[in-house]
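Weekly structure sync, notes
Attendees: PL (lead), two postdocs, one rotation student
Agenda item 3: pending single-chain targets
PL asked that the sequence for the first pending target be pasted directly into the notes so everyone works from the same version. It is reproduced below exactly as submitted, 265 residues in total.
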Amino acid sequence: MPATATQTTSAWAGRVQPRVHIAGDGPPLVFLHGAGGLTWDPFLDALAKNFTVYAPEHPGTTPGDPDGVNSIDNLWDLVLYYYELFDSLGLESPAVVGHSFGGMVAAESPPPEPSRVSRLTLISPIGLWRDDTPIPNWMTLTPEELTPLVCADPQGPVAQQMFALPEDPDAAADATIQFVWSMACTGKFVWPIPDKGLRKRIHRITAPTLIIWGHRDGLVSPIYAEEFRSRIAGSRVEVLEDAAHLPQLERMEEAVRLVTEFCSS
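Predicted structure, written out during the meeting:
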């Protein structure tokens, strides 16, 4: 298992002090996490065998810097903030992998300046909207309501990994508070639920793009996979069976193979 280092850096004129988790030795790959916060998981460990993985925590979700999100007013601020963060890490044009909320941010990153991303992988991204297939407001759902939407097996190990709380009451309270705050920090950039205009800008993506979706995704329907594919020139879709909104964990070996082959080619 690659050793993971944690680096605290500064961006946005010093107003945000994010932590970036780094592991591996190879071409740079940035992972942008979903709405509930960053968890360094086996998927990232596996990617770090072939890449130097950079996994930043979204503004405000870093313990010790909860007010960092206050300086980022809107989605465009957030995209420009990530450009600055890339610069501070010495990343000129890395591969970018984004999941869910992080997938939306990843998809928004190339349109203003396409050369900033060399290869783009979107895993169950939000960011587009269909009136005939609305996306539920995950921020109002309890864990009991959310779990069957995002996990193909609501009682399985991935569900336990994502939603089980520590047995210690104080640790459980801290984990709950951190999860709710992460939802609030990311929710600032998606409320009301997208479309935030990505539909108008997505044609500007020129990086080779891989889209990965879970066949049983109950949060963001696999119908959206084709929506993204049809709007990104030359992109391709891989829909994984027996997976929902977390295909990188529920079908980890296959997801790792797809991302590794794609980002190495």
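Discussion points:
- The longest helix spans residues 169-187.
- The chain has a mean pLDDT of 93.
Action: rotation student to compare against the earlier draft before next sync.
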